[in-house]
Design a protein that fits this description.
Elements: H1 9-20, H2 24-37, E1 42-48, E2 54-59, H3 66-71, H4 99-105, E3 108-114, E4 121-127, E5 130-137, E6 142-148, H5 155-160, H6 164-181, E7 186-191, E8 194-199, H7 204-212, E9 220-226, E10 231-237, E11 249-253, E12 256-258, H8 261-270, E13 283-288, E14 294-295, E15 306-307, H9 310-327, H10 346-349, H11 379-382, H12 393-405, E16 424-426, E17 429-434, E18 437-442, H13 443-461, E19 466-476, H14 479-487, H15 489-494, E20 498-502, E21 505-512, H16 520-532, H17 538-554, H18 562-574, E22 588-592, H19 593-600
Parallel strand pairs: 1-7, 11-13
Antiparallel strand pairs: 1-2, 2-6, 3-4, 3-6, 4-5, 7-8, 9-10, 10-13, 11-12, 14-15, 16-17, 17-18, 18-22, 19-21, 20-21
Length: 601
């Protein structure tokens, strides 16, 4: 009996498609690259339902004749390689010859294409990798490809896709990678039949400015360097535009987008001391290098690239950025004309200088100390250590009996909190004596946990209460931020925000009742950072936003009397997760007697 069999064509195509078509964004990337390689100067992209229902890409490139149109849907069919040496001299985007074959294997695909020489075009329909119809049609020069019902024949793969909003985020990224690398090409992107980007053919600076939104040109400055190893050019965001998330960070080599934590470190190092900690600079950096010096085929998505002279490029990139920062006066400089002595207040300048006085305790003797023992410890613990008397057996038995009495399910068994426990309010903390030392509660974090649990419980049942503002707050938005807000307006309404977007301006008309007015803008800034992170569900966003809001609410909380202390403690221990705040910071800590003894030695 023969065990090994050749896979059917349709099954092998579906397996190959798993490497090339990981999600709708993969389809967009492959088709856009084909359009650019076909010499297109105008590309129109339309997306529906996060790419599940429809991905439509139309270009005015060279188009194909009937024979090439049919051939391009076969595996390993390409116009971009003729010998093995071509792999090491790549000057095109796609080259594996698997894109259309893979897409056709997992979707219903319709293609219309026409060359300039042909009076008519050809229309093909593929379904599950099989050619269904082929007919002559009248159409414009170029190619139109419509990918419908992606993964219709692989339900498990279709169910694996994220929400429409998340999938579109990935599509938008793929679109921007190609749009940034090819400013000479006009790009248009529609989502759900609504225009999002309409980028005219231009230069690199204008293209970057359009993507950053209104005033984008004022946020960036150029970098440029030419060497025998690599040519570097592009634009960096000024230090004040640094963000808390890694948005708008792009590397390109020979106009191909790639990711590199190593080169990112060079950029981050160049900005050291100019931007706050845990913030990231904006950059659009283009490297031009001999194609034989790089390997773009080490990763299925071709976003990771191997460089032969990586260390030299790192050094050149670092020095180029620092030179540009200095050239455009963005580096801090020393003024050698300024007096470096301390600038004393005028009231002190004419007073005589007196030496400091030193106070000494004449009765201090370092060889004497008070060795008071803490009676809350068992005798076995008190007598432990070098030079101490041997402990009696019954003392250790007594010690272990104490431990046995403690309930095992408590996270801090030694707390022994009860209704009569007296807490002292000291600044940020509540402090109470317990058997093993002192229990310390962080007041603000405790309140955050209480408010968070209460708000989540209410939010599940109904939207949060909104407080209308007397005067709307205005906030300027970038192009991507506008799209992010628009796609989450319904969730924001449920969280208690009343918002309106007019062109590039966000009008904040109302905010959650619990949120102080002076914290509204900061809370929405935090939201933008959350939305820029890929693969977040609506539930994740709601929870992180709620945590941010209660943090702002708890910020100005003050305890004024004992009843408020008791109420806070009772509410805290009623919370299921009373040990950590919503942002996973410790609420409760215990300062044990042995720790105190170390301080007093």
């Amino acid at each position: 009996m023969q065990v090994i069999q050749r896979l059917p064509i349709h099954l092998s195509n579906q397996i190959a498609a798993g490497e090339v078509v990981q999600r709708p964004a993969s389809v967009v990337k492959e088709l856009l690259e084909n359009s650019i390689d076909a010499g297109a100067t105008e590309i129109f992209v339309s997306i529906r339902d996060g790419g599940r229902t429809l991905i439509s890409i139309m270009d005015n490139g060279t188009g194909m004749n009937e024979k090439d149109a049919v051939m391009c849907f076969e595996r390993h069919a390409t116009s971009k390689l003729s010998s093995i040496d071509d792999l090491f001299r790549l000057d095109t985007m796609g080259f594996r010859g698997e894109a259309l074959a893979s897409i056709g294997a997992v979707a219903q695909v319709e293609m219309k294409t026409k060359t300039a020489e042909s009076p008519t075009g050809i229309q093909l329909r593929f379904e599950g990798g099989s050619l269904i119809t082929k007919e002559e049609v009248v159409c414009a020069k170029g190619t139109l490809i419509e990918v419908k019902n992606l993964f219709y024949n692989i339900p498990a793969r279709r169910n694996f896709l994220k929400s429409d909003a998340i999938e579109f985020n990935h599509i938008e990224d793929a679109f921007l990678y190609l749009a940034l690398a090819h400013p000479e090409v006009s790009f248009t992107l529609h989502n759900q039949q609504q225009p999002l980007y309409n980028l005219d053919a231009s230069n690199f600076k204008r293209r970057i400015s359009e993507i950053l939104g209104k005033g984008g040109a004022d946020k960036i400055f150029p970098i440029e360097s030419e060497t025998d190893i690599v040519n570097i050019h592009g634009f960096l965001g000024k230090p004040e535009t640094a963000k808390k998330t890694r948005g708008h960070q792009y590397f390109f080599v020979n106009r191909r987008y790639f990711k590199s934590s190593y080169f990112h470190h060079a950029v981050q190092t160049a900005f050291e001391g100019l931007i706050p900690e845990k913030t990231y600079p904006i950059y659009f950096i283009f490297l031009e290098i001999n194609p034989e010096k790089i390997d773009v085929n080490i990763h299925p998505t071709k976003t990771e690239i191997k460089f032969d002279e990586e260390r030299f490029i790192y050094s050149l990139l670092l020095s180029t950025i620092r030179q540009s920062l200095g050239k455009f006066n963005l580096m801090p400089s020393l003024d050698f004309e300024v007096e470096t002595a301390f600038d004393l207040p005028s009231s002190f300048r004419n007073q005589p200088v007196s030496p400091p006085t030193i106070h000494v305790d004449p009765h201090f003797n370092p060889f004497t100390k008070n060795a008071t023992k803490d009676k809350s410890f068992s005798p076995a613990i008190q007598q432990a250590g070098f030079g101490m008397n041997a402990n009696l057996e019954n003392q250790w038995k007594e010690f272990y009996e104490i431990q046995k009495e403690l309930p095992k399910e408590q996270p801090f068994p030694e707390m022994n909190i009860h209704a009569n426990t007296e807490f002292i309010h000291s600044g940020k903390y509540l402090i109470a004596p317990i058997r093993s030392g002192f229990l310390i509660i962080h007041v603000k974090r405790a309140l955050e946990r209480i408010l968070y649990d209460q708000s989540i419980a209410n939010f599940i049942k109904q939207p949060l209460n909104v407080q209308m503002l007397l005067f709307p707050i205005e906030k300027k938005l970038e192009l991507q931020e506008i799209r992010l807000f628009k796609s989450h307006l319904k969730l924001l309404e449920q969280l208690g925000f009343n918002l309106e977007i007019i062109e590039s301006m966000l009008l904040i008309k109302g905010a959650p009742e619990m949120l102080p007015e002076d914290a509204v803008v900061a809370c929405l800034d935090s939201l933008i950072q959350k939305l820029e992170v890929q693969d977040q569900t609506q539930e994740d966003i709601a929870h992180s936003m709620m945590a941010e809001m209660v943090k702002s609410t708890a910020k100005n909380y003050q305890i004024s009397n004992k009843s408020e202390i008791q109420q806070l403690v009772e509410q805290l221990f009623q919370c299921r997760e009373h040990e950590v705040s919503p942002s996973q910071q410790k609420i409760i800590s215990i300062l044990r007697h042995e720790d105190l003894n170390q301080f007093l030695l």
